[in-house]
Request: fold
Amino acid sequence: MWPLPNLPCELPTATVPEFIDLKSLVEHFQLVFNDVQEEHFVKGAIWRDLFAMTGTLRTFYSASSIAGAWQATASTHLPSKFVIDGEPRVIQAGPSAWVEMSFTFETNGIPATIGYGYISVVPESDGKWRIWQLRTILEQLKSHPDVDVLQPANTESVSETHMTRGELATNGIQPHLHQNGETSTSYGHEDYFDCLIIGGGQAGLSVGGRLKALGVSYVILDKHENVGDNWKTRYDSTKLHTVREFAHLPFERTFPASYPEFLPKDDLASGYRKWASKYDINVWLSTTVTSGTWSTEEKTWRLELLRYGKKSSVCGGNIVFAVGGNSQFPLSPTYENKDVFRGITLHSGEYKNASGWKGKHGVVVGTANTAHDVAEDMLQAGMASVTMVQRSKTYVVPVEHYRETHDRVYKGSIPTTVSDRLFFSGPAVLGRIMGSRSLHAKARKEPERFDALEKAGFLLDRDGDISYYLFQRFGGHYMDVGTSAKIASGLIKMKSDSLPIRFTGDGLECANGTFLRADVVVFATGFVGNLRLVVEDLFGPSVASKVDDFWGLDDEGELKGAFKPCGHPAFWYHGGAVGQARYMSRFIALQIKAKLLGTPLPIYGLTPPRNLSLKTK
Reply:
């Protein structure tokens, strides 16, 4: 079930005065945090916490629920030293407005931490200003290295001393040098690391770098021959549909302005390789995890590996599972009589390019991002005809519409760490409201663009919810980078009135008796999205039964499983788009570091009652 439309949240309707005594406002709310009460919030307030007070990702709705949760967590975390940071800003979002302030704070519980936050305040009818939105973010573990800073390998780096498996160690390791300079402890006759990271794409690399910054021993296990091959091995025309500034890895701007605005796969791969070399990231390449076991008694994972074709094993205290959230098991519809078809069939996961198919007739089953890319390739390759088979309505977002949102936050003049904190700390329910309003308003200004698509036979989800496609379906929409115009002009044909049911020798027969000529059929129909199936395949049902699902939203609007404790005491899921993987990796690393120090983040799992029942607009 898609929870966001039913969560109690709406944008404020109060009018922010033209002239505000911002100094008095700052002084007032700086004092409020010394004794947070229900009366300090508007009735329909919302609080999102990113590990700072709850030890996990939580969103609380209503003044009463927020006050109860804050008071409960404050009694153990002992927050103090609240300081408003920087100048307040008046935010205008259509008819809604509020004043936003950022702040720093510390907690003095176990572990002691440094936090950051935002409050959005509005005036109410009684003349008092109250908090409409509160965001709190775990920034650092006090007196430990900075998770957001790692010096390149050729400069002096920090080292941290702590207990590993009950023994004193520096950087979490006992000296045992590998050829690449990374060290590990010895566990019997096997290497032992504090953390085993399975998968070396943007998610695995990011969390590996963060762990290194914190002085935690780790190894990234990746099946590919080279860092970056998770991108390089994709189909030739693959490129990001989000802007370059959103694509960096931690600690630096990986892709300077000399790179294209929308990065092609080879540029991504090259950037990843350079980054991993620059920071001396410990990656075991050509390494496939074939199985794994967890010892409850020893609190240790053992992974069986196939490394450069030879069997081996490795042990560790924690696993970060970063294998790609939606790319493991391909899904394809089953049509009758496939054996009689004289052409080529393949899933988009196997597809590279259409260069060898000039003059042939191509059919693409599916209408999301990859399907459009494949159809565009076929057209550019000079195929005799290109037809897309549409199975359901598709939400189309012009890339320039979506880019406007990113460009406001991600730009060369703002450090990526600041942009990430602002962009990713907001509640999903508010992101949905504001994102949908913005995208729908832009679409209404050019109806002819979408009318032309429908006239060409494309079934449009005109009122699509981008949050639903990103966080629930894990895709299924199209970020239009130009192919929609080819459909509207008839260069790419649409088949949406009836679905194929069987192959013939030279094409596909549809349910209504119509025929599609085809020499090549590419199924751009997605993958099984639930990583629990992959977990069970590698670790068995005893582990899989303990961990949550990965992706989709829970009843608070938080992602299931990802980035936080997910049911097993030593297992974390990690994934998502490049920006999300970069930012959320810091929280996985901080959780693991705190655990290794013997001071795990205490988790607050209660939900005080809400005092209202609003519905999002």
